[in-house]
Design brief:
With 211 residues, this protein is mainly beta. Helices cover 2% and strands 36% of the residues. The chain has one domain. The strands form four sheets. The chain has a four-stranded antiparallel beta sheet with strand order 3-4-5-6, with no helix packed on it. A four-stranded antiparallel beta sheet has the order 7-8-9-10, with no helix packed on it. Strands 11-12-13 form a three-stranded antiparallel beta sheet, with no helix packed on it.
């Protein structure tokens, strides 16, 4: 976004999102060791919001299949960062914003993640094939490796996830957007229907053979 003669321009885009603040990791990241146990701080690739219980910002790290090569220590990481529900500001400890939970991802190529009610939902791309939406087993600790419970069809090229609960308190849906040119769409998976067997082989429907 630039300003010329008192007018602002967004490089041809109809909408822009202004940046109002930024946070920097105090632990340095070694780009040559990205997606390894020795990388230091993770690369921030995607984000989401979890409002089940205390509000949190979710961050995640994308690590490609070509880098991970099946090594779970190279599959990427996700974390939960506490937020003040009244102000929307980070909850700081001595001036630092500290994650109160962090996990290794069970597979690589994760493009988006969101947590809700002690479970994680993960979207994985698979090139030109249908992606996968994973639901993890309930988490029982603040660290560790997320464990996959069920797998579901996603559209081709799924990206970030966001959770929108319903006003009546029901789980609502998981929204995502796809990235491939000519095949971009925005759609929602109803959380209550994720494990319905009559949805087998449909988008959002379960398929235990997906990996």
């Amino acid at each position: 976004m630039i300003e010329q003669n008192g007018k602002y321009y967004g490089h041809g885009y109809r909408y822009v999102m202004p940046e109002v603040a930024a946070w920097t990791n105090v632990i340095q990241r070694d780009s040559k060791k990205a997606c390894t146990v020795n990388a230091g701080s993770p690369t921030f690739s995607f984000a989401a919001v979890d409002r089940s219980g205390l509000d949190h910002i979710i961050s995640g790290e994308f690590c490609a299949d070509s880098i991970a090569a099946g090594d779970i220590n190279k599959s990427g990481r996700v974390a939960r960062w506490p937020v003040d529900g009244n102000t929307g500001q980070p909850k700081l400890t001595n001036g630092l914003w500290k994650a109160d939970a962090a996990y290794r991802l069970p597979v690589s190529n994760i493009q988006g993640a969101v947590s809700y009610n002690h479970k994680w939902f993960l979207s994985r791309s698979r090139g030109a094939s249908n992606g996968v939406l994973y639901v993890t087993k309930p988490i029982t600790s603040a660290t560790g490796i997320l464990k996959i419970d069920t797998a579901h069809y996603a559209a081709v090229g799924p990206e970030d996830l966001t959770h929108w609960p319903k006003s009546n308190g029901s789980p609502g849906g998981l929204w995502t957007v796809t990235e491939h040119a000519g095949r971009r769409l925005l759609y929602v998976c109803n959380i209550d229907r994720l494990n319905k067997r009559d949805e087998l082989d449909n988008i959002c429907g379960p398929n235990p053979n997906l990996s």
